[in-house]
Amino acid sequence: MIDKVGHFLLSDEMTKINMNFVADVCYEAMQRLQESVERERPCGLEQFGDLSTLYPALTLLPEPARSSWSSFDQFYSDAAFAEALPIVFAAHPKRIVDIGGNSGSWALACVEHDAKIQVTLVDLPGQAQAARDRLSDARHKQRISIWPADLLDPRQALPDDGDTIWMSQFLDCFSEEQILGILARVARLLPSHGWLFVLELLADRQEHAAAAYSLNATSLYFTCIANGVSRMYRSADLRRLLSSAGFEIAEQHDGLGLGHTLFRCRKRE
Question: Of 10, 81, 146, 239, which is least surrounded by CB within 10 A?
Answer without folding.
Answer: 10
